[in-house]
Structure formats: structure tokens, C-alpha cells
Amino acid sequence: MKESFAFVTDIHYGFDQANKKGSHAPRLIDRYVGVANRGRVDFAVDNGDRVIQRDRTTDLFYLTKLKEHFNRLAMPKYSVDGNHDRKNLTAADNCLTLDVPADSYFVDINGFRNIFWTPSVRITPHEGLKITPEQMDWLKETLDTAQGPCVLFSHVPLDNSSDDNIVAMRHDIRPFLSFYPEAEQVRELLENSGKVILCMAGHRHRNRHRDINGIHYITHQSLVQVDAGHTRPRGAFSIVKIDDSNIVIKGYGIGQPDYVLPRLTV
């Protein structure tokens, strides 16, 4: 079995805001579309935080402009929502504009179950990010009914450890803004299924790979992030190819890593 997909996250289409250079997104997303089309991948993914976030009218305008770029893709495109996508817009706003389901869904391709999971992504000042029991139940049922290996896409990473919390607090960052408190329960569910080979996430505007109990967790850099001491956005996106032995990730953009990861499960 083989499948391939193009992956981009945290596009923040619109205007510049701190280290998010959303004014560069049109040019950079066109490069993503061009590489995906030339690579003839099976599908394309945007992993949330599509807009820079100001108000409903502005966000809907930029989301509609971004959809014009996605329309040039020569293959199906799937999405999950991020916190910026649900700040001023509703799930219905996003699904009607992008022609994708309003909530979590899955797509079976070439024997793989690709799960586009959007648990709660609205960040509240005191509770941060939360996953509800109903969202956990949906994920368990989706895994239980899968006939083959699974790839999970979620905007927020699921690989956090106690060390992440220590580092966050040291930098005066509340850990629950970056991760779900329930992530350990999610990982247990994924591991018990014996079917999940890869989890792809964004949100944190950095790159990280972790292998936790046979599952590869990738946190992917933002398309428009500008690092300290630099003036150009990273332009980060990747092409992912999976076969019976390996997961090969080819990174595009400034400093974007490549990975060759052995299939450890399924």
C-alpha cells in the first residue's frame, strides 16, 4: 500500500502580525500548490489556522481569497480547523467556504484511513484547550472501524510531555494554550488501536518529531513564520510519502527538515 499527500499548516493568510507574515501567504501558498501538482500526490492537506484573525468580515474575506488558491490544486484537498479559524468564524463558515465537513471526518485512500480530527480548538483564558468525551468517543469509533493503517491530522499536537509544561512555565507560557491536557489519554487510545502510524500537527510554529510507543508524531512549522534574526518567512510545507516500510517527508522552505521514518506499527 502507498499514499502521498502535500501538507501545510498555519497559513495565517492576510496581513502581518508580529512574527506571522500573512501578507506573504499568497505567494507562498501558490508555491505549495505548484509543488503538490507537480508531485501528483493523492491529496493535499491544510492543517488549520488559515487566516490571521481580526473580525468575522475580514476573516471570511481572507478565507475566501485563500480558497481561490486551493482551487488550483489538481487533487482533493482536506482540512482541519485551528484556533484562528474558530475565533471569529464558525465551523459552518469554514465548511461552507472550503467545501469540507463542518466537524471531524475521515477519508479512506489506498487502504489508509486518514482522520481529520478537530476537537475543541477555541482557547479560553482559564481553561485553554479541552477535548470532550464525545470527541474522544468519535475518535475511538473511527479507529475501531478502520480496516488498515491510520494517519491522524489535528491542528494541536498530541505529543506533549511533562517536560513541555516545565519549559512553557519557565518562559511564562501557559502550557494549556499549546497542548491538550487530555493528550496522554488520546495517545493511549491511539496505541491501543494498533493502527496509527503517523500524527501530523501544527499550531506551535516549530518543527519536532517524536516517536512515542511506535507512533510518529510530527509538529510542523508555519508557512509564514519569521524566526528571530531573520526577515523572510519560512515558507514551510512538506510532501509526505508512505509505503509498506517507511514514511518519507520532504521539507520545503527555509530550514525545513526531511525525515525518513520506519513504519513501526501495522
Short description:
About 25% of the residues lie in helices and about 25% in strands. It has about 270 residues and is an alpha/beta fold.
Would you spell out the secondary-structure blueprint of this structure?
Elements lengths: L2 E6 L7 E2 L2 E2 L3 H15 L3 E4 L9 H15 L6 E3 L11 H8 L6 E5 L2 E5 L16 H12 L5 E4 L8 H9 L12 H11 L2 E6 L6 E5 L2 E5 L17 E6 L3 E7 L6 E4 L4
Parallel strand pairs: 1-4, 4-5, 7-8, 8-9, 9-11
Antiparallel strand pairs: 1-12, 2-3, 6-7, 10-11, 12-13, 13-14
Task: Give your account of this protein's structure.
The chain is an alpha/beta fold. It has a single domain (3-262), classed as 4-Layer Sandwich (Purple Acid Phosphatase, chain A, domain 2). Helix content is 26%, strand content 24%. It has six helices and 14 strands. It has helices at residues 25-39, 56-70, 91-98, 133-144, 162-170, 183-193; strands at 3-8, 16-17, 20-21, 43-46, 77-79, 105-109, 112-116, 150-153, 196-201, 208-212, 215-219, 237-242, 246-252, 259-262. The protein has a six-stranded mixed β-sheet, covered by helices on one side. Strands 6-7-8-9-11-10 form a six-stranded mixed β-sheet, covered by helices on one side. Helix 2 packs parallel to helix 3. The mean pLDDT is 92.
Please name the CATH topology. Answer: Purple Acid Phosphatase, chain A, domain 2
Output the CATH class name. Answer: Alpha Beta
User: Based on CA inertia axes, which overall geometry fits?
Assistant: globular
Describe the biggest sheet? 6 strands, mixed
Order of strands, widest sheet: 5-4-1-12-13-14
Q: pLDDT below 50 for ≥5 consecutive residues: which ranges?
A: none
Please name the CATH architecture.
4-Layer Sandwich
What's the total helix number?
6
Strand segment count? 14
User: Averaging pLDDT over every residue, what do you get?
Assistant: 92
Oligomer: single chain
Rg measurement, Å: 17 Å
Q: Beta-sheet strand percentage? A: 15-25%
Give the % helix.
25-40%
What would CATH call the homologous superfamily? Metallo-dependent phosphatases
The structure class reads: alpha/beta
The secondary-structure element order is EEEHEHEHEEHEHHEEEEEE
Number of domains: 1
Cα separation of the termini: 12 Å
